[in-house]
Request: fold
Amino acid sequence: MGCRVVGLAGTDDKCKWLKDELNFDEVINYKTESGNLDAAIRAACPEGVDVYFDNVGGEILDAALLNLRDNARIVFCGSISTYNAVEPVPGPYNYWQILAKNAVVKGFLVSSYFEQFEVGAAALAQLLIDEKINFKYEIIDGFDNTLTAFHKLFDGSNTGKLMLKV
Reply:
């Protein structure tokens, strides 16, 4: 759709998948760049970040905030890096960048868009038919494997959309 897309993933295999199969313009392995994410994002987005889709939070969000472009938009969909925290979570540390860059933060819950589901599903179906997008999924078989599947969400070992077949 004309956007330059930079992805973040936690393994070299996932980065390769994003770049080679999903045609991302650039990919950053946030685990190998840990502690240097700000510089990695700056290198991948030299003109700054216009739209940041956040479902991770934590240090990745902090690094993205330091690289916002003026009037950037942040879509806040989740904060998986803090879901299992046992103590209060500080931050984001670089929250002030929202003001400095005149950025907009908007929450995103799929339930807010139920009335648009049919239109969205049809548009995505057409993109799949036209082979303009593709996806990967992983199916874990059996209700007894629910916890195993759930833990994959947090340890990063899943690839693509994770589903449990019962």
